[in-house]
Amino acid sequence: MPLSLTRADLQRTQNFINARWSDAADGRRLPVSDPASDAVFAEVPDSGAADARAAVDAAQAALPAWRATPAKQRAQLLKRWHALILAHQEDLGRLISREQGKPLAEGRGEVLYAASYVEWFAEEATRAYGDVIPEPVRGRKMLVVKEPVGVVAAITPWNFPAAMIARKIAPALAAGCTVVAKPAEDTPLTSLALTRLAEEAGLPAGVLNMVVASRERAAEVVDVWLADGRVRKITFTGSTPVGKHLARESAGTLKKLSLELGGNAPFIVFDDADIDAAVEGLMAAKFRNGGQTCVCPNRVFVQRGVHDLFVEKLALRVAALVVGPASAPGSQIGPMINGRAVDKIERHVADAVSRGASIVVGGRRLRSDSCDGPNYYAPTVLTGADASMACSLEETFGPVVPITRFDSEAEVIAAANDTPFGLAAYFYSRDIARVWRVSDALETGIVGINEGALAAEAAPFGGIKESGYGREGSRYGLDDYMQTKYLCQGLNLGAAA
Ligand code: ADP
């Protein structure tokens, strides 16, 4: 098959629990398919409650020794993991592209991106400083120390099979937590390969446990973790409805939560913008991973004075995008993750057109010779979009740019914020006063100012409003896996004093 691996044993097809590769207790299997053609090319366990419990037992048993391991030693293990990920960049990139469909160049890029989080948190592990507080009364010493929260359950989506795992597991391990994880059902192989490399790096038994399940059984696995008081934190990236479910159900044992949920990112181009830079920024932000990222611009607002020029320049760029299989050297847009995803894009475009939008480029499924399956959608530009359309209300998660014309700054700020979500926003302007005003007014956790590529391991990634809470990456990212303990020592030690 295309995208074959030099190390075939990196394609693991079992769970990893307590340092053993194992099948689901009841032997059920889950097929893994090529997103382009839906052809099945591997099978993994379809785990259930018994496997989920075994994973927590292992993580809990491993916790005392792992949290007592000096931070420097934990850091060294993470650095070995990092080195192995880099050494296997090509194989991991191929696995990502094979199961997720992104062009191989992006698959390789994602490996580096994932590795950057492992390296970052290896370094941060040794810097989990506490505080010494100047005592407000005589006769005391007051200190603050940071401790690992305990067993962490990580639940990840399919769009960045390596980066999502790395962003959650690296800080957890750095903090001294042990982990049970369930990768997305569409993309389990990359997580299992990363787990294999963590095993090779020398991670002690039980510190990282990986349990794979189908969409139908995801809740059975995760419900066990939600109900178990030994699991002290849930870290989740995915849809807002599932995030809310996790928040509700973890209330029973009051777990700490990090939720990175849907976005509905606005991308605003003001009359005073550098139009070429704005087009470039939109291309980078929108078409990464075929538009299947939670920080993708979902609603594009362009001010009246530059609207037509912007649309003209953008349309030329979008029409030139090469759509094709992940393995084809020139591919820029791969297949969507599955048929459901393409159906949603089709529904959004049809709805927009029925409400008055015009198709400038694309607007259809692709079934050409260069596409090896039914799950391709043409990169699309729509004009005349408005707030009533499904593509403005929900994330399209595909290569569609709906453009709305606007007149005033106040109007566009109100429109940009008129959503329950608040993950990322982008705007282009060369007016310095406007830059600060608009940055202030946008209700999101991340703002791109004259920049379309925002993600970096050194930056705090996360949202506000119904896009969730918690931050991944940066020094803030480690804190999410730690709790604060206050130590107060009395100095009234008797006569000797
Ligand atoms: P997406 O729409 O991107 O697939 P989801 O929120 O549905 O986002 O899925 C993200 C992750 O959440 C996946 O690992 C999926 O298996 C898991 N998941 C889906 N439904 C549930 C559920 N009811 N309980 C726990 N996890 C779930």
Beta-strand residue percentage? 15-25%
Ligands in the model, by name, code or SMILES, are: adenosine-5'-diphosphate
How many beta-strand segments?
A: 24
Main pleated sheet: 7 strands, mixed
Oligomer: single chain
Shape verdict: globular
What percent of residues adopt helix (DSSP H or I)?
Answer: 25-40%
**Global structural class:** alpha/beta
Q: Report mean pLDDT, rounded to a whole number.
A: 96
The radius of gyration over CA amounts to: 24 Å
State the strand order across the main sheet.
14-17-18-13-12-20-21
Number of discrete helical segments:
15
Give the CA-CA distance, first to last residue.
Answer: 77 Å
- Low-confidence blocks of residues: none
List strands and helices in order, with pairings.
Blueprint (H helix, E strand, L loop, with lengths): L14 E3 L2 E3 L6 E5 L6 E6 L3 H20 L2 H17 L1 H12 L3 H22 L5 E3 L6 E9 L2 E5 L7 H13 L2 E5 L5 H14 L6 E3 L4 H13 L3 E7 L2 H10 L6 E5 L4 E5 L5 H13 L9 E7 H16 L19 H16 L3 E4 L3 E2 L9 E2 L2 E4 L6 H4 L6 E7 L2 H9 L3 E2 L1 E5 L3 H10 L4 E4 L14 E2 L2 E2 L4 H6 L2 E9 L7
Parallel strand pairs: 7-8, 7-10, 8-9, 10-11, 12-13, 12-20, 13-18, 17-18, 20-21
Antiparallel strand pairs: 1-2, 3-4, 5-6, 6-24, 11-23, 14-17, 15-16, 19-22
Helix pairs in contact: 1-7, 2-4, 2-5, 2-6, 3-4, 3-6, 4-5, 9-10
Bound molecules: adenosine-5'-diphosphate.
Adenosine-5'-diphosphate binds next to α7 and α8.
